[in-house]
Structure formats: C-alpha cells, structure tokens
Design goal:
A six-stranded parallel sheet has the order 1-2-3-4-5-6. It starts with a strand and ends in a 5-residue tail after the last helix. It has nine helices and six strands; from the N terminus they run βαβαβαβαβααβααα. The protein has a domain of 88 residues: 3-Layer(bba) Sandwich (D-tyrosyl-trna(Tyr) Deacylase, Chain: A).
C-alpha cells in the first residue's frame, strides 16, 4: 500500500503526546494507509518531548517507519536524542546556495542524523534561477540551474525536497546522475553563501507566536 511523509503541526492541540497519536491515527484512516514513511515534528516549539515520545510509540507499532524533526538546531536535535530512546533520523532544514549550513550539516551527520533540504531553490528568491554562477556551471554540463543545485546537494548526501506540480520538472529534477561537479564548481557555489535564512529566523519570538497561532489539521 502507498505511504507518505507527514509533519506534526505546532499548535497546542497537535504538538502533545495525545495530539500526535490522534492526528496520526486520523490521517491514516482518512488516507487509507497502513503506515507513514516519515513523520516529522515541524518546528522546535511546544511540547516537543511529548510529541516525540508519541512518535516513538507509533514507530514501535509499525505505523511510522521513520521519525525525525524539522527546523531544529543541532543542539535541540541532540537534546532530543540524549533524553529519549530514538535519535531523530532526519532533520529537515533550509539548505540552498544562499543558506548552505555547512557546519550544521557536518554536525548532524556526526550525530547520525540525516539532513534534508527544504527550499533547495530558495523558492526562487534572489533570482536564483538566473544566477550567473549557477548558470555558467549548468551550461558546462547542459543542465539547468535546478539540476546543478540538486546535484550539489546529492553529492553532500543530503535528501532533497524539491517541490513541483509539473511532470516535466519532476523528470528534470531526477535527471542529475549523469554528471559530477568539480571541486572548482563547488568552490564557486560556496561563494554564494549568505549564511542566513532566505525566509525568517526560527529564533524570532514574534515568529514563534505567529506559528503558535496557526490552526492546521493533517
């Protein structure tokens, strides 16, 4: 039977032990699935410990294959692992040429946590698809900027979350295994790093309040 990945929301009714259990059971029933491939805590807020322990239980029951987190700092991910039974198997964080997170990626891998890149194309910000550095590299291999970015991530052993609704883009995004970036290519891409989020800070109190006010159901 088909399965998928889901993210726990941040609202009080969901990000608790009982909230996660209820949310996942409801999602499985609505979707007609036996299990979920990957379940993530979407943000490092609210009752993270309660939510995590529910996820551990669901994994033991076979209703979830893998459990992880999203937008967690390395310290928060390690904290979760140190005081619970299961180490997060994935940390989904913003990674793109403008926010490369090299040190955090290395630290996550050292802890046995697989990094997954959300917004690998920075959602088109800063004219990323016409960036001259990325275009030059792409032209050398007959590839698009998107393919260069995906290849750059794949070569770092990073899971790539590239969203598109266009079938032709899906095919293009998978067609990245017939070329390799040189060290010079990677050095040029490294110069694009701005070292900050292209969207918002997860440490901003106002952003945390805004996320807590959202009412999402999965």
């Amino acid at each position: 039977m088909c399965s998928l990945s889901l993210q726990c929301c941040v609202e009080k009714s969901c990000k608790t032990h009982d909230g996660v259990m209820s949310s996942v059971e409801g999602s499985l029933e609505r979707l007609g699935l036996d299990y979920i491939d990957l379940l993530l805590i979407h943000q490092p807020y609210n009752d993270v410990y309660g939510a995590w322990r529910a996820m551990e239980e669901l994994q033991k029951q076979g209703k979830v294959r893998a459990i992880g987190v999203s937008n967690f700092g390395v310290d928060r991910a390690v904290d979760l692992a140190a005081f619970n039974e299961v180490t997060p198997q994935v940390n989904q964080i913003e990674i793109n040429p403008f926010q490369q997170q090299t040190k955090n990626i290395e630290a996550l891998k050292k802890e046995g946590i697989i990094p997954e890149a959300w917004a690998p194309f920075a959602e088109g910000k800063n004219d990323i698809f016409t960036n001259p550095v990325l275009e030059k590299i792409g032209n050398k291999y007959g590839k698009s900027v998107a393919q260069v970015i995906i290849r750059w991530l794949v070569e770092q052993d990073i899971i790539v979350l590239a969203k598109t609704v266009k079938p032709e883009r899906m095919v293009e995004n998978l067609n990245v295994f017939d070329f390799e970036l040189t060290e010079d290519d990677k050095t040029q891409i490294a110069t694009l790093n701005q070292g900050e989020s292209q969207f918002f800070s997860h440490y901003d109190p106002e952003m945390i309040k805004w996320m807590a006010s959202r009412n999402l159901n999965i």
